[in-house]
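Dear colleague,

Thank you for sharing your sequence with our group. We've completed the structure prediction you requested, and as agreed, I am returning the results in plain text so they can be pasted directly into your records. Please verify that the sequence below matches your submission; if there's any discrepancy, let me know and we will rerun it promptly.
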Amino acid sequence: MNALSLAGEPAAPADSSQYLTFLLGGEMFAIGILSIKEIIEYHDLTVVPMMPPSIRGVINLRGAVVPVIDLQARFGRPAAPVTKRTCIVIVEVDEPEGGAQVAGVVVDAVSEVLEIAAADIEPPPLFGAGVRTDFIAGVGKVRGRFVILLAVGRILALEALPDGATLVEAASLPGGGHQAQSLLPRGAPAAG
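Please find the predicted structure tokens below.
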């Protein structure tokens, strides 16, 4: 049985890894702790016109424009209502050509940080789980239940979103030109 990295590739041998678990639509999901920068309260999103439904908007995170992705919509499910437990998990993923992509993902509630042994991680299922299987890095077995380990790099691949070309509009945000440039699909022209 092979452990998988968040990118979905075989991981370097390790006894265990830590994951932040959270609820989404009543199911337990997890993201590797090394990809997580911080967890913030859900607040004041700026809606950007003509975005795909899975992008709720952008936030100002200490002067940087950060896109906020609704994981429920990204998985093809209806968006969950915002409650007092809803929060935004800020993640950072290394880009193949260097640099890092920072984005927020909306979750229903953060649960806990779990350590999952490599032996307790199965490869993604070939069907089911209600999520595109390319978004799944593996399935962890924890205390008699399953936790879906997400391939955060694939989820944040904005060029794979429907209407990805409309991300050019984000470049016209006041003060957001160069930060919004990182939201553009590879090869797309910048506005302005």
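Summary note from our side: The CA atoms of residues 19 and 32 lie 4 Å apart.

Kind regards,
the structure core
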